[in-house]
Design goal:
Layout lengths: L1 E8 L10 H15 L2 E9 L10 H11 L5 E6 H4 L3 H14 L2 E6 L2 E3 L3 H34 L21 H15 L4 H10 L7 E2 L7 E2 L4 H8 L7 E4 L2 E5 L8 H12 L19 E2 L6 E3 L9 E4 L7 E3 H17 L3 H8 L4 H23 L5 H28 L3 H5 L3 H7 L2 H11 E5 L14 E5 L9
Parallel strand pairs: 1-2, 1-3, 3-4, 10-14
Antiparallel strand pairs: 4-5, 6-7, 8-9, 11-12, 12-13, 14-15
Helix pairs in contact: 4-5, 6-9, 7-8, 9-13, 12-13
Bound molecules: zinc ion.
The site of zinc ion has 7 residues, from loops.
């Protein structure tokens, strides 16, 4: 019979006999005693490199058994053969299927071609299977419990916090807060990534290359997005994609700011940062003929900034300056009104404290409903009806919280003595964010042969308060 010798070096034993050459000698001796021909020997070294990596030797051994090349697998002891229950089960199932003998220097010989051998293998297999299930159930329960208690169970250090997951790391927390502001004020995720990279922050993940220490990864738009959408930053514990508890760690941003940024990032019509810094209205304004977004460019002469309809036929291309000047004068006019602050803030601004309290109350009620359901105090259909109602209410409150966060954008302008100067001091991306909150902009063709700017060709439609949550 052809035999496959499988050896494993592991650090869990200091026993002299476990040294791999001794293991090998013993296996070869057993093979010659039985008259087996050793056709292959594989060694795995658990001491080297990543522990989670699949063991090449073990896999090679399974492949050899699968292909029918060997009738015997030889190892020093059962615990040398398999490292975990999952591998053990794979091996038993395969050997059973292929009628292969498992032989150990220290331990039983399992002949899977005989009824007795199969019986033993079945039992060993079901013990392994039972342990796997028990373990994963235990792990699932433990993870769920930790989540419901708002505990952090470890893992990669979250950006903004120390490795304990509980202590805020001030420099990173400040960067995160600034990023929420930037996104709210119209910056793209790519701009945030660039800022974080230039400030020397990394994602904490290292890219390993053979023989190298690995380079810390740079931020990219998608990794920034993951950070900003993580409810960890408002001290909420998430389990399986849902907020399940108040976390044990402190928040980095307020709930309304978080909700506002979430609304911005999840808005499919979000104006991307590609728009180009010099153009106030590109992507924000729409064509008055077809409704397509208005983009920058398409000027008739070089050097002239222009807006054009982005539809394939393009309904117009017109000079940018007069349009922008008009829009800016209207905005400054609105915000300079003596009652602007009252209009924008007192009437529009939801009471964030009150909303937050309501949201907390609703979340608590949702928890209580689940308990009632579990204790049969409520039927399943009652439960569904009640929770659907509560969730809808919660969604409304969360969108109002988002409005509260968004309206903060107008704060500096409303407080300014000289609104025009304050407006001009804003970056284009912040100006865009202000426009986005205040109005919809529709640009019409300038008219044939018209040289003078006609303000009726630029339509500014105030956004009503109840639009603010959507747009
Ligand atoms: Zn058009």
């Amino acid at each position: 019979m052809k035999a496959f010798v499988y050896l494993r070096i592991s650090q869990d034993r200091t026993d002299e006999r476990s040294a791999v050459d001794r293991q090998g000698e013993d296996c070869l001796k057993l093979a010659s005693d039985r008259g087996w021909e050793v056709v292959a020997t594989e060694v795995d070294n658990d001491l080297s490199a990543a522990g989670k990596k699949r063991r090449k030797g073990f896999e090679a051994m399974l492949t050899a058994v699968e292909s029918g090349q060997v009738g015997v697998v030889l190892a020093w002891a059962l615990d040398r053969l398999q490292r975990n229950r999952r591998d053990e089960l794979r091996l038993y199932e395969l050997c059973q299927r292929k009628n292969v003998v498992l032989a150990f220097v220290k331990g039983p010989e399992l002949d899977f071609s005989t009824a007795a051998g199969r019986l033993v293998a079945d039992q060993l297999g079901s013990v392994a299977r039972f342990e796997i299930e028990q373990k994963s159930e235990r792990q699932v329960r433990a993870a769920e419990q930790a989540a419901k208690q708002g505990r952090w169970v470890g893992g990669r250090r979250p950006f903004g916090y120390e490795p304990d997951g509980l202590t805020v790391r001030p420099a990173e927390a400040a960067a995160i807060q600034a990023a929420y502001d930037s996104v709210l004020y119209g910056a793209s995720l790519r701009e945030v990534a660039r800022t974080w990279n230039s400030q020397g922050f990394t994602t904490g993940q290292r890219r390993y290359k053979a023989g190298h220490e690995g380079e810390p990864s740079l931020w990219r738009a998608d990794s920034v997005r993951v950070v900003l959408l993580n409810p960890r930053n408002i001290a909420k514990r998430v389990y399986k994609g849902e907020i399940v508890a108040d976390a044990k760690w402190p928040a980095i941003v307020s709930e309304e700011r978080f909700a506002a940024v979430t609304a911005v990032l999840k808005n499919p019509a979000r104006v991307s940062g590609k728009a180009g810094g010099r153009y106030l209205l590109s992507g924000l304004a729409r064509c008055g003929v077809c409704g397509a977004p208005v983009h920058a460019g398409g000027a008739s002469r070089r050097g002239v900034r222009a807006y054009r309809c982005s539809a394939s036929m393009g309904h117009f291309a017109r000079r940018a300056e007069p349009v922008e000047e008009y829009v800016e004068s209207v905005v400054v006019g609105i915000l300079s009104r003596p009652d602007a602050a009252r209009l924008m803030q007192d009437d529009n601004r939801p009471d964030a404290e009150e909303l937050r309290a309501q949201a907390v109350g609703l979340r608590e009620q949702l928890d209580a409903d689940a308990v009632d359901l579990a204790n049969d105090r409520m039927s399943r259909s009652q439960f569904h009806a009640v929770t659907a109602q509560r969730r809808a209410k919660l969604a409304t409150i969360e969108s109002m919280l988002a409005d509260a966060g968004r309206l903060d954008v107008l704060g500096p302008l409303l407080a300014a003595e000289d609104v025009r100067a304050a407006w001009e001091s804003l970056s284009v991306s912040r100006q865009r964010a202000v426009l986005h909150i205040l109005m919809r902009i529709v640009i019409h063709p300038p008219g044939r042969g018209v040289r003078k700017f006609d303000s009726s060709t630029v339509e500014l439609i105030p956004k009503r308060r109840d639009d603010a949550g959507r747009h």
